[in-house]
Amino acid sequence: MNSFILVISGPSGAGKSTLLKKLFEEFEAELYFSVSSTTRLPRENEKHGIHYYFISNDEFQEDIKNNYFLEWAKVHENFYGTSLKHTEKALNSGKIVILDIDVQGYKIAKKKLQDKIVSIFITTKNKEELKKRLIKRNTDTITQLEKRLENASDEMKELCEYDYLIINDELERSYEALRAILVAHRLKTKGQDLDQIQNIWNKGE
Ligand code: ADP
Ligand code: 5GP
To answer: Where is this protein localized, as stated in its record (predicted)?
Structure first.
């Protein structure tokens, strides 16, 4: 099985979660969503262990000390991190691991696991549209919203670090693009057990 890590980054509000939800509806059996730890407070609809592990600052610092994280970063005043153990376990079981992480975290993960990572940057067609979506989502205070928009401009400067770019304008088209990337990478020869495939082919099983 061709297991790899699919990193999804992009400004908050661009539509990453919406697109990932669709991907999971179609490919659930093959995917593993890495639930991050964060020191941010849960939003109204968010559940511990499903959207994030919501932990205290002290717990987060303790996890850093214990090398619990594959990567971690401070984003919009809060800490976020990806479990190394969970990621490795999912990769070993042949899953495609989905990481919804920021640019700083992506750079760290890429240094550690370069040949396992495929990366996609998802954004809106312009800043105005991002603002509209954040307002519509209605999960941030005005100060948080401004912080997220400011951060988005910085993140846009890092586009060149990514393998693929999706401008999430029309949702169905963006989903087709995301799906195409996943399907193509699953078919790559690198990462597949070619000896086994050849053996099976020769035996005619
Ligand atoms: P992210 O996970 O990147 O922070 P979300 O998936 O929460 O973003 O999307 C932010 C808001 O934008 C949500 O209200 C979502 O319904 C909406 N949205 C997502 N994709 C589109 C799209 N292509 N066109 C219009 N609205 C969208
Ligand atoms: P939100 O607070 O909107 O859920 O997420 C804010 C930002 O943190 C998003 O850009 C998201 O991709 C990023 N993020 C979520 N989990 C992680 C993680 O484990 N590591 C890093 N580096 N960023 C994360």
So the answer is: Cytoplasm
Q: According to the model, what pLDDT value does residue 205 have?
A: 61
| Residue with CA closest to ligand 2 atom 19 | 81
Whole-angstrom distance, CA of residue 76 vs CA of residue 84: 23
Average pLDDT over residues 112-137: 95
How far apart are the C-alpha atoms of 87 and 98, rounded to whole Å? 9
Domain boundaries, the chain: 5-190
Q: What is this structure's pTM?
A: 0.94
Question: Which atom of ligand 2 lies nearest, measured to the CA of 40?
Answer: 2
Q: CA 3 to CA 132: how far, in whole Å?
A: 36
The pLDDT value recorded for residue 1 is 63
CATH architecture assigned to 5-190: 3-Layer(aba) Sandwich (3.40)
Phi, psi of 96 (to 5 degrees): -95, 120
- Comparing C-alpha atoms, which of 41, 111, 105, 96 is closest to residue 69? 105
